[in-house]
Amino acid sequence: MIPEKYANETDYRKIPREYLNPNIPQGRGMKKWLSMATIPEQYERLEQYIQDQNKIEKPLLSEDQIENINDTLASKMIDNTLAKIQYFANGYIKSVEGIIHKVDTLDSVLYIYTDDVLMPVKLTDIYNIE
């Protein structure tokens, strides 16, 4: 029996558990919320799909474009002037500005100083040099 103190209480949370009917179902508990546990992964996957839609394929350069890049590269190295290099990386065209340090023809890598950091760029990934 419920003591008279709790007889008129309508909020079961205020009644001690030992006075409540033990046959009342507990509900679904966490089972109800298990479907929500997959949502973070879904959001991450959707975000990845959106990013993948913005990616482009690596541009193919014509012989004239390659020759123009080589000429510009040589003149920038001789003059030791600031160069803006556009290159392909992970589906995007990225840009870096700095002084060309050297070109490693064995490894096909161009090294450029940008903000006092030596950054390597693959020659095959270069899209444009200004």
Automatic annotation (TrEMBL):
Annotated keywords: Plasmid
Record protein name field: YolD-like family protein
Originating organism: Staphylococcus epidermidis
Taxonomic path: Bacteria, Bacillati, Bacillota, Bacilli, Bacillales
